Amino acid sequence: MGTLSHVITLHGLTSCSYAHSHSNPRFNTSLPTRVPRVFAKLKTQNSTAAIDFTDPYWKTKFKDDFQQRFRLPHVTDIFPDAASVPSTFCPKKRTSDFPGNYPSDDDWHGYINDNDRVLLKTIYYSSPTSAGAECIDPGCNWVEQWVHRAGPREKIYFKPEEVKAAIVTCGGLCPGLNDVIRQIVITLEIYGVTKIVGIPFGYRGFSDKELIEVPLSRKVVQNIHLSGGSLLGVSRGGPGVSEIVNSLEERGINMLFVLGGNGTHAGANAIHNECCKRRLQVSVIGVPKTIDNDILLMDKTFGFDTAVEEAQRAINSAYIEAHSAYHGIGIVKLMGRDSGFIAMHASLASGQIDICLIPEIPFNLHGPSGVLSYLKYLIETKGSAVVCVAEGAGQDLLQKTNATDASGNTVYRDIGVYTQQETKRYFKEIGVHADVKYIDPTYMIRACRANASDGIFCTVLGQNAVHGAFAGFSGITVGTCNTHYAYFPIPEVISHPRLVDSNSRMWHRCLTATGQPDFI
Ligand SMILES: Nc1ncnc2c1ncn2[C@@H]1O[C@H](COP(=O)(O)OP(=O)(O)OP(=O)(O)O)[C@@H](O)[C@H]1O
Ligand SMILES: O=P(O)(O)OC[C@H]1O[C@](O)(CO)[C@@H](O)[C@@H]1O
Ligand SMILES: [Mg+2]
């Protein structure tokens, strides 16, 4: 995140740690840059270790650790003798007896090799002071970080006729949920799976006896992407992991596709670990869903693009209202619990925002350098102004709350209403006319149908989720990394919410676009 530390932390964690094997022959541990392993000096802190950058071999240690952390948990970790069979999915050509066995081509198969990798970071920063620099060591050395490429494998670890696959959607709504459900079902059928079900209303559907699993097929899902929401319904809270795995066992589910955000993925990883503990051959695959875009390491999450696009309508209305009124001020509140990506990108896209306020950047409303003084300046100089505020912004200005939702997420105070009230009060107090209009499109930006770009994104994510399950992986999730599709072990992408970096080029671009000063 642009910060530089002389000591980096090595985790060495795996998602199924008790079953972890470094010697799995399926994975080539000798990437091209590997150099002889030397034991560098370690500074141990609890269960983690730190690298001493004066050690000439620290890079090797870092790469080894990285490779270990990003290794994908696999069915062979628990069942070393698990047999694979040739894939029933053929990327190249199909016979007429769909979905039977496909012929293979000796020269070109179109499968992903297990040793294919995607480069996680693509910029070489020559100095820690370079804009947005993300350096590992004080010298900003180039260290390759590789993650696993997503896609269909030549060998599969599940026989389609023995699969019962389930899909569950958890957390809040997000544009594209139906597109992902649809593509998972279609791809499963292409592999030859016939038993596919949807679990209604998130994890709750595993415990609530009144909720019946929904049979899914291509016919059922054919047109579901034409509307927003989730065919299966969503929920927060719900049963514990043990109850969920009991339910998986009772239902005979051996492939579980989990669509959700940070919380849902924490749950998916716990389900994966519990299945490992019980020695169940179940593949648990996540597909990150969040309009907040707060999942680490990936370019973006599905639904984010659509949410930003939908937010334009609210911003444009606020602009027109403000611009058409005498001393008009428009205020738009957008979602973003802890991360301000929607507000930042919507501000950049619209070109109509004068002030963008996000959770990651502290600001004052009052005082000579506060937002309100600047609004006065804008009214005096350009006659109107538009503010975009993310829901998690400026919480330090409001009374603390202990309220949480069913999943344990903090329910924040309403910064949008507060900004509106304080703006009205301020202009009244200084005796300057101001016509303040407030728009809160909160649920409108996530209840809509996915746009074309998200539609394609969801389709490819859905396909790759199924490929990952058939390849025998579990406890993983799928995303894009520098536009390439990759698999990640779940713990690596949810260790904390992804935040807007105040030193990033994107935030600086946003500041350039709005022209706003610091409000501190
Ligand atoms: N640490 C956790 N371990 C196990 N399950 C969890 C954990 N955190 C949340 N969950 C479960 O995951 C589900 C969704 O969590 P949550 O409501 O936080 O949404 P989310 O997946 O983060 O999505 P959103 O981006 O909409 O907030 C809930 O059913 C919740 O019980
Ligand atoms: O009202 P709900 O369903 O709890 O959802 C609100 C939350 O959903 C999110 O969009 C995440 O999905 C947050 O930005 C927001 O706080
Ligand atoms: Mg969450």
From TrEMBL:
Its EC number is 2.7.1.11. It is found in: Cytoplasm. It catalyses: beta-D-fructose 6-phosphate + ATP = beta-D-fructose 1,6-bisphosphate + ADP + H(+). One of its GO terms (cellular component) is cytoplasm. The active site is at 292 (proton acceptor). Residues 165-467 form the Phosphofructokinase domain. Its cofactor is Mg(2+). Its main location: cytoplasm. Pfam families: PFK. Allosterically activated by AMP. Keywords: Allosteric enzyme, ATP-binding, Cytoplasm, Glycolysis, Kinase, Magnesium, Metal-binding, Nucleotide-binding, Transferase. Substrate binds at residues 290-292, 335-337, 391, 443-446. One of its GO terms (molecular function) is ATP binding. ATP binds at residues 172, 236-237, 261-264. The record marks 263 as: Important for substrate specificity. InterPro entries: ATP_PFK, PFKA, Phosphofructokinase_dom, PKF_sf, PyroP-dep_PFK_TP0108. Mg(2+) binds at residue 262. One of its GO terms (biological process) is fructose 6-phosphate metabolic process. Pathway: Carbohydrate degradation; glycolysis; D-glyceraldehyde 3-phosphate and glycerone phosphate from D-glucose: step 3/4. It is an enzyme of class 2 (transferase). Catalyzes the phosphorylation of D-fructose 6-phosphate to fructose 1,6-bisphosphate by ATP, the first committing step of glycolysis. Homotetramer. Belongs to the phosphofructokinase type A (PFKA) family. PPi-dependent PFK group II subfamily. Atypical ATP-dependent clade 'X' sub-subfamily. This is ATP-dependent 6-phosphofructokinase. It comes from Cajanus cajan.
